[in-house]
Write a structure and sequence with these properties.
heterodimer, A: alpha+beta, PH-domain like, 2 domains, 4 helices, 25% strand, B: 641 residues, alpha+beta, 18% strand
Chain lengths: 154, 641
C-alpha cells in the first residue's frame, strides 16, 4: 500500500473549525470596538487574519497528512507546525473505531480511530475517509491486527 | 471466601466518621438541643451504616478459581467480576495504623484496563492478604504453564509447570502463605543511613508552588498594608520568608519520604518482585516481572554528587494519578548508583549502556532557549518594577546568562539513547537526570516529532511510547534532538526490533509455531496476484486447499484508498458485503477466503447467475436490491452482527 492522502473534503471540516476559532478570537475584539476602546476595523482585521491563517493551516494540513498500512505497522505522517510521524505496530492495536461527528456527517466523511495501550499515542485518528472507507479501513486493520496476534500487549 | 468480620465495624465507623465531624459542629453551635439531636442522629446513622456493612459483608464473596479471581459484591447494585490471573498487573496490600491494630488489611489488584483499581478487597486478615498475594502468583504461573503448551493438559502438567516457573515450589496446596510459592531472595533493603539520606534529599517542591501561588495573590494586598516600609526591609522579609518556606517544605518532604520508605525492602520470588515499605501505613505488593513496562533511574545534582540514584519500576496497572505521590509503588528510593544499576539489571537485563549523544551543535539551541527564557524573565521583572515603581534592580536576572553555557552543555551532555540487545535506553534532563529503560517488546508505538525549530536545526525527537503509567506526566522514553537521519533510522530500528521481539516471544510461548511460514507463503501468493494487476482473477480460480487441508484467510494488505468509496459489485439481490468483512465469513467457506477487495469472486458470480435465474423477468427488484447495496456501511454493520 502506498501512502494515502485524505479525502479533499476534509479541508471543509478543518476550514469550518478555523471559522469557529476565528469567531471566538474575534468576539473580545468586537466587544472592545463596541465599547469604543478599539478602532472599528480591529475586529474585522483580526477575524480576517485568523480566518486566513486557519484556512491556510487547514489546506497545509490536508497536504501534509498521509497514512499508509505497511506489512507490520500503520504509518501516519501529519502536522504542519510540528510534524509528527507515528508508527503503530499492528501487533499493538487494541481496538479500532470508525466514527462520524456531526460536521463530518454534514460533508459525508468519517474517521477511523486506532487505539493502542500506549500512554502518549493511545489513540490515533485518521480523519477524512469516506464512510465506507472508514469502516473498511477499520475491518482491514482489525484483520491485520488479528493476524499480527499481539497477545499480551501489557 | 468472605471478608474478615472485623471489617464490618471498621468500615461502618469509617463511613460514619464524616457525619461525626458535622455533628460535632452542630453540637458546638447549638448547645441547647445539639447533644441530644446529635446523639440520636449519630446512633441512627451508625445503625444504618452497620446494617449496610453487614449486608455488604454477606454479599461480598471472592473466590480463586482455576484461571480467574471472581469477586461478587454490591448491596444495591450487584456486580460479579472475574479477573483472569494472567491479566493481573500488581497485587498491593496496605495496612493503616488502625487497620494494623484491629488486624485487617486492604488488598488491591490492578489490571491494565479501566480507570480505577479493578479488584479492591476491603478488608481481610493480614494472613489472608498474604495468602491471596501468593496464591494469585502461584496460580498465574501454573496457569501460564498450562495455556502456553496445550500438550500438557493432564493434571500433572500444572505441577510440572509450576515447579519450572518457581524454582522450588511448594506444590502441596493451600496450607499457608509460606508454603505456597517459591523462596524469596532479597534484592534490596534500605539501611538507616540511606533512609536518612532519602529524607534529607526529598524536597517537596509542590508546597513551595502552592504557597507561592497563594502568596502571589496576597502580595498586592500586603504591600498596601506596609506602604512605608523601605525596599530593603521588604526584600529582607521576602528573603526570610522564602528561606522559611524552603525549610518547611524540606522538613515536610523529609517527613513524608521517611514515613513512606521506612523499612523499604525489595525482593524477588520466582518471576515476581515484592516490596514492603511504610512507617505508619504499611504497604506491600507484588509485581510480576513479565508485566514491567519500563524502568526509570533518576538522580539530581545532590544525588549525583553523593553517588546515589533512585529506581522506579513501572507497570501498566496504575491509572493516571492513581499511583499518587510516589508514582510507581515499587520504587527504590535511594541507593548507590552502582547498586541501582545492578538492581535494574536484575529486573531487565540490559547491558552496559553507551549513550549516543545528540549533535554538539544542538547546544546552541539550548543556549538560545535559555537566553530567551532569561529575556522573558527580565521583561517580567521590568514590567513589575515599572508598574509598582519599586526601583528594584530589574536587570538582575541578566546575571543568569552566566549559567546559560553550562546549562546548555549539561542539557546536551545528559541527553542520549542507546540501543541494547533487548532494550532501548534513553537519558534526559539537565537538572534531574532520568535514564529510562524500555524493553523493545513493551513499545506500543513510535512517535517522531519535529517542531518548526527542530526542523530549522535538522533534528527530530523519537518517543517510544509504552503503557507505563507515569508516561502521562511526560516522562516517556524519548530520544530528543537527534539529527533527522539518525532519528529516522532509530524509528525504523525500533519498529523492526519490536517485530523481532514479538516474534521471539511468540516462539517462546508456543515452540511449535507452524503458522508463520505458511502465512508468509500465502502472503506471497497474494502479492504475486496483485502484482499481475488482475486481482479479479485471483478469485475466479477457486483456491486450492493447502496440502494440510487448512484454509487460511487472506491477510495481505490491500491497495485500497479509503478516502474513496469502495467499488460496488453488482450482486443482484444477493446481498454480498464485498471486501470489508470477508474474513469473518472465511471460516465457513473455503471458496470465499481468497476474495480480494476489489474483485468479484467465483462465489459471487455464481450467486449472480443463480439469482438471475431465479428472478428472470424481474429486473426491477434486482435493481432495488442493488440500490440498497449502495450503502456499504449498513451492509457491513449488518454482517457484523
Amino acid at each position: 500500500m502506498t501512502a494515502q492522502a485524505l479525502h479533499p473534503r476534509v479541508q471543509i471540516v478543518w476550514a469550518l473549525r478555523a471559522v469557529l476559532i476565528a469567531a471566538v478570537v474575534t468576539v473580545p475584539f468586537a466587544g472592545g470596538a463596541y465599547l469604543g476602546r478599539l478602532p472599528t476595523w480591529a475586529p474585522a482585521v483580526v477575524g480576517a487574519v485568523v480566518l486566513v491563517l486557519g484556512v491556510a493551516h487547514a489546506v497545509a494540513r490536508y497536504r501534509r497528512w498521509s497514512y499508509e498500512i505497511r506489512e507490520d505497522a500503520l504509518y501516519l505522517d501529519r502536522g504542519v507546525i510540528t510534524q509528527v510521524r507515528t508508527t503503530v505496530p499492528l501487533v499493538r492495536i487494541q481496538h479500532v473505531d470508525s466514527r462520524r461527528g456531526p460536521v463530518e456527517r454534514g460533508v459525508g466523511l468519517a474517521s477511523c480511530v486506532v487505539y493502542t495501550a500506549g500512554s502518549r499515542g493511545a489513540d490515533v485518528r485518521i480523519p477524512g475517509l469516506t464512510p465506507s472507507g472508514a469502516s473498511d479501513l477499520r475491518e482491514e486493520l482489525k484483520r491485520l491486527a488479528i493476524r499480527a496476534d499481539g497477545e499480551d500487549a501489557v | 471466601m468472605k471478608l474478615a468480620p472485623q471489617s464490618i465495624p471498621y468500615r461502618a465507623l469509617q463511613k460514619v466518621s464524616g457525619v461525626v465531624v458535622v455533628l460535632f459542629f452542630v453540637v458546638n453551635n447549638n448547645p441547647a438541643w445539639g447533644v441530644a439531636a446529635a446523639t440520636g442522629v449519630g446512633a441512627v446513622v451508625l445503625l444504618v451504616a452497620i446494617g449496610y456493612e453487614v449486608a455488604y459483608y454477606q454479599r461480598f464473596d471472592y473466590e480463586l478459581t482455576d484461571d480467574t479471581l471472581d469477586i461478587s459484591s454490591g448491596v444495591v447494585s450487584r456486580r460479579e467480576r472475574e479477573i483472569p490471573y494472567r491479566r493481573i498487573q500488581n497485587v498491593d496490600v496496605s495496612r493503616g495504623v488502625i487497620q494494623r491494630a484491629i488486624g485487617v488489611a486492604a488488598v488491591d489488584l490492578e489490571t491494565a484496563g479501566g480507570s480505577s483499581t479493578e479488584g479492591s478487597i476491603r478488608f481481610v486478615t493480614p494472613d489472608e492478604a498474604t495468602r491471596l498475594q501468593r496464591e494469585v502468583q502461584r496460580r498465574k504461573s501454573s496457569n501460564r504453564g498450562r495455556s502456553g503448551s496445550e500438550r500438557e493438559s493432564e493434571p500433572g502438567a500444572a505441577a510440572g509447570a509450576d515447579g519450572e516457573a518457581g524454582g522450588q515450589s511448594g506444590h502441596r496446596g493451600d496450607f499457608g502463605p509460606d508454603e505456597a510459592g517459591p523462596d524469596e531472595e532479597e534484592l534490596f533493603a534500605i539501611s538507616p543511613s540511606e533512609l536518612a539520606l532519602v529524607g534529607a534529599l526529598s524536597f517537596d517542591g509542590r508546597l513551595i508552588g502552592l504557597l507561592a501561588f497563594l502568596s502571589s495573590g496576597s502580595v498586592p494586598v500586603l504591600s498596601s498594608f506596609v506602604p512605608d516600609a523601605s525596599a530593603v526591609a521588604l526584600t529582607a522579609t521576602a528573603i526570610v520568608g522564602v528561606g522559611a518556606l524552603f525549610l518547611v517544605s524540606w522538613v515536610l518532604g523529609a517527613a513524608v519520604a521517611f514515613s513512606n520508605y521506612y523499612g523499604f525492602r525489595l525482593s524477588r520470588a520466582g518471576d515476581e518482585l515484592r516490596y514492603e515499605r511504610g512507617l505508619f501505613r504499611r504497604y506491600s505488593g507484588s509485581i510480576p516481572t513479565e508485566k514491567v513496562q519500563a524502568l526509570r533511574i533518576t538522580d539530581n545534582p545532590a544525588k549525583r554528587a553523593l553517588g546515589y540514584a533512585s529506581l522506579s519500576i513501572e507497570t501498566a496497572g496504575y491509572a493516571p494519578g492513581q499511583g499518587g505521590e510516589q508514582g510507581s509503588q515499587a520504587a527504590v528510593p535511594l541507593a548507590t548508583t552502582d547498586r541501582v544499576f545492578r538492581l535494574a539489571r536484575e529486573v531487565e537485563s540490559f547491558g552496559d549502556p553507551q549513550f549516543n549523544r545528540p549533535p554538539k551543535r544542538i547546544r546552541w539551541r539550548y543556549a538560545f532557549r535559555y537566553a530567551i527564557l532569561i529575556g522573558v524573565l527580565v521583561g517580567v521583572a521590568f514590567g513589575v518594577n515599572w508598574v509598582f515603581d519599586a526601583g528594584a534592580p530589574w536587570y538582575a536576572p541578566v546575571a543568569l546568562l552566566l549559567v546559560v553555557p553550562p546549562a546548555a552543555h549539561y542539557k546536551w551532555k545528559h541527553r542520549g539513547y542507546w540501543l541494547g540487545e533487548n532494550h532501548l535506553l534513553t537519558r534526559n534532563g539537565f537538572w534531574s537526570r532520568t535514564v529510562t529503560v524500555v524493553p523493545y517488546y513493551r513499545i506500543q508505538n513510535v512517535i517522531d516529532t519535529r517542531t518548526v525549530f527542530q526542523r530549522r536545526w535538522d533534528v527530530a525527537t523519537i518517543v517510544a511510547d509504552t503503557a507505563g503509567s507515569s508516561s502521562i506526566a511526560g516522562n516517556d522514553a524519548a530520544a530528543v534532538d537527534f539529527a533527522t537521519d539518525e532519528a529516522v533510522d532509530l524509528r525504523e530500528t525500533l519498529r523492526e526490533r519490536l517485530r523481532v521481539a514479538v516474534a521471539d516471544h511468540r516462539a517462546a510461548r508456543d515452540p511449535f509455531e507452524w503458522f508463520e511460514g505458511d502465512a508468509d507463503a500465502a502472503d506471497e501468493d497474494a502479492d504475486g496476484a496483485s502484482e499481475s494487476g488482475e486481482s479479479a482473477t485471483t478469485g475466479s480460480t477457486p483456491p486450492k486447499p493447502p496440502d494440510d487441508g487448512v484454509i487460511r484467510p487472506n491477510f495481505s494488505v490491500s491497495d485500497r484508498d479509503y478516502s474513496e468509496p469502495a467499488e460496488l459489485v453488482d450482486t443482484g439481490d444477493y446481498a454480498v458485503d464485498d471486501g470489508a468483512t470477508e474474513t469473518e465469513e472465511s471460516d465457513d467457506g473455503a471458496t470465499e477466503t481468497e476474495e480480494s477487495d476489489d474483485g468479484a469472486t467465483e462465489t459471487e458470480e455464481s450467486d449472480d447467475g443463480a439469482t438471475d435465474d431465479e428472478t428472470t423477468g424481474g429486473e426491477a427488484p434486482t435493481d432495488d436490491a442493488t440500490a440498497e447495496n449502495d450503502e456499504p456501511r449498513s451492509g457491513s454493520t449488518g454482517s457484523e452482527t
